[in-house]
Amino acid sequence: MNTKLIPNFGYLFEEKLIEEIQNVGVSKTFIEHTVIIEIGDYIKSMPLLLSGAIKILREDENGEELVLYYLEKGDTCAMTLSCCMGQTKSKIRAVAETDVELIMLPKEKMNIWLSKYNSWQSFILQSYHNRVEELLTAVDTIAFLKMDERILKYLKDKAMVNQNDELTTTHKQIAEDLHTSRVVISRLLKKLENEGKIQLFRNSIKVLEL
Question: Strand order of the sheet with strand 26-30?
């Protein structure tokens, strides 16, 4: 029995559904930076996130990545549900932002539970709603925020999901996640430091405004 299932999902799901999840779910762990789902993969199971955080990325035709949003404990990725039910290939890459613990649920149960359990139906619909809101936020961020504002939002989001205001990251990694150049990132990070919003260290960045 997975001891983290009930604290994270027991208040959402009926006891019978929790029992089914315990019976058919497969517990998995991934260390930080591990690719959990790759673009082009056929998805055979849907994750319930028990601990840690997952970064969801989109990739363009040149292989450049862009961070869309993060998943935290108590979440699932609605995009994987779409792929499971539609038997289509994944259009996103999911990477462990921190060490992660998941329960993977077989796709065969997805439709069955939607008609069998009201709590599962509500959870899936809410998950879709949350992901759409996050995608709209990502679009708004790209369309309407200046790059320094995008960087600061990115750092704040990253600090929140890591539950740590000091982030171990590189200028190159930030540039890749935001689909821009390292030179631009370095210049704007220095600007943000001069404005008192962050503090730069050799191998880390401290977010002063959360």
Answer: 26-30, 100-106, 45-51
Residue 22 pLDDT > 70, yes or no? yes
Q: How far apart are CA 40 and CA 37, in angstroms?
A: 9
Residue 25: helix, strand or coil by DSSP? coil
Beta bridge partners of 58: 66
* Structural tokens at position 37: 């789902």
- Rounded CA-CA distance 134/98 in Å is 20
pLDDT single digits (tens) 160-197: 999 999 999 999 999 999 989 999 999 999 999 999 99
Which pTM does this prediction carry? 0.84
Report how far apart, in Å, the C-alpha atoms of 102 and of each of 6, 62, 64, 69, 106 are: 13, 31, 27, 18, 13
Give one word for 32, left, alpha or beta, with left for phi > 0 and alpha for psi -120 to 50. beta
